[in-house]
Design a protein that fits this description.
Layout: H1 3-15, E1 21-23, H2 46-49, E2 54-57, E3 63-67, E4 70-79, E5 84-91, E6 98-102, H3 109-139
Antiparallel strand pairs: 1-3, 2-4, 3-4, 4-5, 5-6
Helix pairs in contact: 1-3
């Protein structure tokens, strides 16, 4: 799968309001776990060795949107060294979710830039929408 095509389509559909993103903390959508790894139970549990560096998902600044029978999650991870963005996907019928892209796992500068662009587009759209609603409310005397 071409990651750039996926990101371009997400950006385009977000711009033309075909995708409606909401803050993850305000949604009722449960993020499914990632598939287990054979390394999870062994003595070399890599995930646990990095646990002190990670504070987890910043639910206030992460987003989710519904599309057909699935969900896209744009998750902001709050790490001690630096924050990272992860695009995670799940379907209604799947047992697990899947990480498609992450700024912490790629050296592809274009992918990192596109993930940040998508995130900025979503977060700025939300703040301008709040201002627009406020102005419309004022004009209409509500």
């Amino acid at each position: 799968m071409d990651n750039n095509l996926l990101l371009e389509k997400l950006i385009k559909m977000t711009k033309d309001n075909s995708l409606c993103w909401v803050r993850y903390c305000q949604s009722q959508i449960e993020l499914k776990p990632l598939p287990p790894s054979p390394l999870d139970d062994g003595p070399f549990n890599i995930a646990n060795s990095f646990a002190p560096l990670s504070k987890g998902i910043d639910t206030e600044n992460s987003y989710v949107c519904h599309y057909n029978q699935g969900y896209f999650f744009l998750l902001l991870y709050d790490n001690l060294l630096q924050n990272s963005l992860t695009l995670r996907v799940q379907t209604d019928s799947a047992e697990y979710s899947r990480i498609y892209l992450s700024t912490s796992d790629t050296d592809d500068v274009n992918v990192v830039a596109q993930l940040k662009r998508l995130y900025n587009l979503i977060s700025s759209h939300e703040s301008t929408q709040d201002v627009d609603n406020f102005i419309n409310s004022f004009i209409n005397g509500e």
